[in-house]
Amino acid sequence: MNYRDCGAQPSSMASQEFLLQMDEVIDVDEASPQNFFLRNAVIDAESTVLELGCGVSGIVGLALAPRIGTYLATDQDYVSKILRLNLESNMSNIEGPKKHRSKTKTTPSSPSSHKASKLKFLALDWETDTVESLPALLAPEKDSKKPKVDVVLACDCIYNDSLIRPFTRTCEDLCRLAGATSTSNPTICIIAQQLRSSDVFEAWLSAFMRSFRVWRVPYNLLSDGLKENSGYVVHVGILRSDLEI
Fold first, then answer.
1. What is the pLDDT of residues 162-193, one digit of tens each?
2. Number of CB atoms found within 10 A of residue 204's CB
3. 187 to each of 107, 140, 169, 208, 238, how far by Cα in Å?
4. Strands, E, within 18-132: which ranges?
């Protein structure tokens, strides 16, 4: 992979918590046919993805869960009520990859239990919780060399200085789960951010690079909404070994 770090231009966007209602079925194949991470099997049908700071909409999990093994959405416990409503209301509107689709149609009032079982919520506060407090669902399978968490995903989670240290520490802890620091199959962090403040971005990047080897995904590999001058940037991180730190 040929990534390189980059600077940032600040941008801003208001955030809002809401109940989500999808009016149309989202076809996962059509939604992101050229997705860099899917196309290169960074994320595949067997992957376990853990999202940090999922928020109440659950839209990333709804779009990605049908394509992977397990999707673990995490955030502070207070988001769980609205998040669960959004997941239950919209699960039936997500079409999985064509090769995995059943010939039996499900109605909007009867969400697929198979899809629901792939998408789970776990309460995780970066400042007060540790990854060891999470259920055994995150533990690696017995005698498996592959880490249970293949990808740690975060979308627009760093917007002030106070979040940098607990966020980075949580990423480190997740990547240190048994087997996760394997050089042959490490846990990968994918961090997507809106560039609100250059100071906050640079402080996060500096802190993150102390523990992780970091690359910026080139704009030509991203979808149109994330390309240059969009105000967004995506980085990939792999935890450094103890000898590198």
1. 999 999 999 999 998 755 555 668 899 999 99
2. 24
3. 37, 12, 15, 15, 7
4. 26-27, 48-52, 70-75, 94-95, 119-123
